[in-house]
């Protein structure tokens, strides 16, 4: 069963932005309002929702549950009705939980229990299908017993499967048989019989054992590890509480509306609060359970994991799966597959300054693939760690050195506490970027500027508009549309342009929300070029709604509800499609696995009317971008680092395409040897082209700081530097200053 704990998708910090648009009838939908910023809370509606949905208690249905099974409480029955009402009345979709949606909710819930179709029998699912059309009625009446019955059946099947798996460990498998294990079963048929399920689990246990054998363990050592692992899986299922079953069920409802709407139980609301207050020390990563793995959902800007990545050190990445954890630089690794997420988190947290190490199955890698080892030093997620940082890079063109400033922006932040205290020197993304530009200027002429937004999942909305304002004169930056259809246009808050030279914005698939607002505005104004990979595509706004009416402590939990969408000044949404780069670069991030378009039930892309803005000149004409892209494609053919990156991406794509694994020991050894040899060949080809001595072995290559440390080249930044130099020298002039036409028809005045 999946647990949903403290997950924050890329985007605005919850609570930082609320809606000020009051509830209105449909005849207001065409009106627009331009303000400096922000939506004030929809508290009136929510007060009515919370009050109205709590007026009576739904009667309990006759019990369907077996003796000893977890059962819904009267409090949960009431809370289910309240959550359903809020979702219907406050969510952007304004959708009714009806028969059509009921089937989708049922499927979400079933998938949360057994997405790989490895526990339930086809007969179980056929029985469950009788409730497929009742999930809409369940949340209205509070009679959610069928969902608890489904979980009770999952617990029963889990006990049966774990007992069978443990019994199989009594005899070592025959590693010489040529057979395979289908590990990706999301589209497979449900097992028709216990015998079919047994065969599936025989291969699964054999695959688990083979992975440990390939990692250097004996069969006896492997059986001890697997016995402990399977025992933990059993205990994890048995220790699940009714609140956790209810939380999972409510998330099936919320996420059918869209993937960023979530329900947090009281326990997880407190965990969420701790995470947002940054009051613990750890690695700055958000986890969730994915099958039996603790999977990385998000890296918090300024945290140890994100900082290590920004320094090109080995670190965790989104969708990596943690398989083992060790304390200190030489402590033994402890297998954590099958652990409760709470227990994994406790292993990761610890005293600041201490070391924690991980064995990690990389994102997209097949089970049993070679794992990587990551070492991180625990610490707090600090504002300083989130802060923008600068570098001064030199690129030679026609014998002349060009100075290119690079400013990394890991998040959109503002020290609101210091601002509230009246401190005029409070920290913010915009202020830090302006200061860094001044520092670059003080060091000498700046021929061009790159803002590196790779991995920037967003943050504080006002900083997106303010940062845009450093590079354009006053005008509209982004439009917000709420669930009533009301549109609000947010302006650059200050007139004048702080930097008007050549500008490039570097993005990747993890650039989301506020990053997309900024990149889209720079692109729409023709102010600069966007380079890299298509961005995440999160163009929605969430509100955090407490479900506790009479106490500040989280007793009932809280609901995150999508209440609006972002639109560019052109009227195009950033939702789902993201921002397309003017000049595309290859990326190791798989867009089919990462991004809004990869999420179930994501809100669609759409368009509204453009804000009143216009270009004085068509400065960023498409042929100029095509010319830059063509020049870069030709130049990159002779770049050893770029060719190594392209070859490595192709190799990873081939691995991701695998759906099954060989269970023959010699075949697996041979496959791993081929992969290692190919990896070594790619690296040595690069080294030969650069005049460096080749590595003799894979072990020597992996131990080198040239392949796993600060000396690893940032290939995409290097290519972006070359593109920026082209913009500076090859006649692609920086776009002329634009004029935004205000709603009253007047024009903003360019800064002197």
Q: How much is the average pLDDT?
A: 82
SSE-based structural type: alpha+beta
Number of helices: 22
Describe the biggest sheet?
6 strands, mixed
The fraction of residues in strands falls at 5-15%
Percentage of residues assigned to helices:
25-40%
Low-confidence spans: 1-62, 616-622, 731-752
Categorize the overall geometry.
globular
Tell how many strands the DSSP assignment holds. 20
Rg computed from alpha carbons, rounded to a whole number of angstroms: 27 Å
Question: Which key features would you list for this structure?
Answer:
globular, alpha+beta, 38% helix, 22 helices, 6-stranded mixed beta sheet, single chain
In words, what does this structure look like?
- This protein is α+β, with helices and mostly antiparallel strands and 752 residues long.
- It is 38% helix and 15% strand.
- It is built from 22 helices and 20 strands.
- The strands form four sheets. Strands 1, 3, 13, 14, 17 and 18 form a six-stranded mixed sheet that branches. Strands 4, 5, 6, 7, 8 and 9 form a six-stranded antiparallel sheet that branches.
- A hairpin with a 4-residue loop joins strand 13 and strand 14 (487-491).
- The longest helix is centred in the C-terminal third of the chain and has 25 residues, at 665-689.
- It is globular, with a radius of gyration of 27 Å.
- The chain starts with 31 loop residues before the first strand and ends in a 23-residue tail after the last helix.
- Residues 1-62, 616-622 and 731-752 have low confidence and may be disordered.
